[in-house]
Write a structure and sequence with these properties.
With 104 residues, the chain is mainly beta. The chain has one domain: Rieske [2Fe-2S] iron-sulphur domain (Rieske Iron-sulfur Protein, 3-layer Sandwich). The chain is 4% helix and 45% strand. The chain has 1 helix and 9 strands; from the N terminus they run E-E-E-E-H-E-E-E-E-E. A 6-stranded antiparallel sheet has the order 1-9-8-4-3-2. A 3-stranded antiparallel sheet has the order 5-6-7. The chain is globular. The structure holds FE2/S2 (inorganic) cluster.
Length: 104
């Protein structure tokens, strides 16, 4: 079964920024604001141990991991530039009552 969790007010995450959240099930996720639309992936880079919310840079819909400069499309989780090859887990995100909310 899917659960819904309200995370934070939408205005708390400006365009182009990333923040980490820990879900009640222990998953650590990165939430992204891409041109006013919110997306979420697992926080840990699938190439190594880097935290994408801390070590990543959001450029349009791509997050670049500063450890080895690989990228992912945060809207799909698909890897972009090498050395990233394994897709990131993604989560459905929506805004309800002004709050960024997630299905997990
Ligand atoms: Fe992210 Fe290597 S740990 S690209």
């Amino acid at each position: 079964t899917k659960r819904i969790l309200a995370l934070f007010p939408a205005e708390d995450l400006p365009e182009g920024e990333i923040r980490a959240e820990t879900l009640p099930n222990g998953d650590v996720i990165a939430v992204y604001n891409v041109d006013g639309n919110f997306f979420a992936t697992q926080d840990q880079c699938s190439h190594g141990e880097a935290s994408l919310s801390e070590e990543g840079e959001l450029c349009g819909k791509f997050v670049e991991c500063s450890w080895h400069f690989g990228t992912f499309d945060v809207t799909t989780g698909e890897p972009g530039l090498m050395p990233c090859e394994i897709p990131l887990k993604t989560y459905a995100v929506f805004v309800a009552d002004g709050k960024v909310s997630i299905e997990y």
